[in-house]
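input
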Amino acid sequence: MKIAVKNLKNKKVKDLELPETVFDYPYKEHLVHTAVVSYLAAQRRGTHKTKGRSEVRGGGRKPWRQKGTGRARIGSLRSPVRRGGGTVHGPQPRDYANQLSAREKRNALKSALSEKLKQDGILVLDGLGLDSHKTGELAKSLAGLGLEGRVLLVDRFDNDKLEMAARNNPDLKTVDALAVNVYDIVDRPHVVMTEEAVGRLVEVLSK
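output
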C-alpha cells in the first residue's frame, strides 16, 4: 500500500509504503465508538458537588418537642424536605474516566486511520517546516493543498512555528505523532502528517 508524499507547494515528491497491518486494518465501529466515548469521558472534570444534610448549615438540635405542639414531628432543620436542607443523592466529585486496554487503544486507532485513508482524508507531507509563525501563512499553505475546514496537523511537539501558526485558528489542531487519538481522527475530515510522523506512529502501532 502506497501513498504520495507531497511538499507544501502541493507537488509530489515520492511514494511512501504504508504497512497494511496499520493502514488496512478492518473498520470496527463499536471499538472506535468505545474509544471516542472513553476520550470524552476523560475530559470531564467531575468537580460537581452538592451538600448533603450532614454538610449544610444549621440543625444540631431538635427544633421543637416531639409531641404536644400540634405540628408535624421533625428531628433536624437540615432535613432534605425543608428549605435550606441537604440534597438527597446529589452529584458528588467523581472520575469519569473509562480506561481501555493498550491493545484496544491501538486497534481503535488503526481502525480509525484505515477508514480515514479509505476516505482520502490523510495527506502526507515531506515536512512541516514553516518559514513563518504567522497564522495567515499557514492558512495559505493549507489552502494551496486543497484543505478547507477542520484539519489535524501531526508532526513533532517541538515544531514551535507550526504550533504558533495554528493556535490562533480554531479549525486547526497540532499534535505530536505519539499523541494522536481516535477522537481527533474521527472529529476532523482532514489529517495532515509528516513523513517522520507516519514512521513514528507506525513504529508504535506495529507492536
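quick obs: The mean pLDDT is 93.
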